Amino acid sequence: MWEDGEEIFPPTLPTLPTLPSPQSPPMAKIFPVHPDNPQIRRIEEIKSALSSGAVMLYPTDTVYAIGCDLNAKSAVERVRQIKQLANDKPLTFLCPSLSNVATYAFVSDTAYRIMKRLIPGTYTFLLPATKLVPRLVQSPKRKTTGIRVPNHTVCLALLEALGNPIISTSAHVPPDEGNNGLVHIDPETIQSRVELFDRLDKFVDIIVDAGEEPKYEVSTILDLTGDEAVIIRRGLGWEAAATWV
Fold this sequence. Notes:
The strands form 3 sheets. Strands 9-6-8-7-12-13 form a 6-stranded mixed beta sheet. It has helices spanning 40-51, 73-83, 98-104, 109-118, 153-162, 193-200, 238-242; strands spanning 2-3, 6-7, 29-32, 56-59, 64-67, 92-94, 123-128, 144-148, 166-167, 169-170, 206-209, 220-223, 230-233. By secondary structure, it is α/β, with parallel strands linked by helices. It is globular, with a radius of gyration of 22 Å. Strand 4 and strand 5 form a beta hairpin. The chain contains 7 helices and 13 strands. It has a single domain (25-173, 184-242), classed as DHBP synthase (Alpha-Beta Complex).
């Protein structure tokens, strides 16, 4: 108790064991990044975390995405758990340039001509995967992979710093059918990036905040695995893609 601003101590009592306080899930670290001139130090910090197996939430030129270093197996597995994806469901990843795409996919002359016209941009290209694409990422039956070259300054800065492709799957999270404590996120119900960050901060390690509010238009998907290109999903920029297919 307190009296006249001085503490009056009660008689000494036996010391009781201290009970551990309940542990709450760790919260993600938020990295504010300038959208047009990303700070080198911040990009390096994010790169270091990704290289160590971190999973991040970050903006792209389409929607907010959940991602990690393509070659960090444990992180890719966590992305699959968050998205509740079976191993036969392929994951898309980002590359910084068309020449880099050719490292991870077999690009035909037809595919090259189309991609050259559309890169960088809001397009996902389905291509035959090379051996550098982890099996955990590609389609196991078709041996194909989905690749994007984004038109987004922060994404490109991260790709350049990391030196590896970055997994990119939308921040849409389906209902938790396995009762694993995951949060259901329907992007169209999210009102602001603050709400999105709050919903996912216990499931990712890093949140990249470039001040961008959530968008809901997805990329256009082009299947370039055959002799002819086929648009299999109409998203942002599909009209431009249609002139080259």
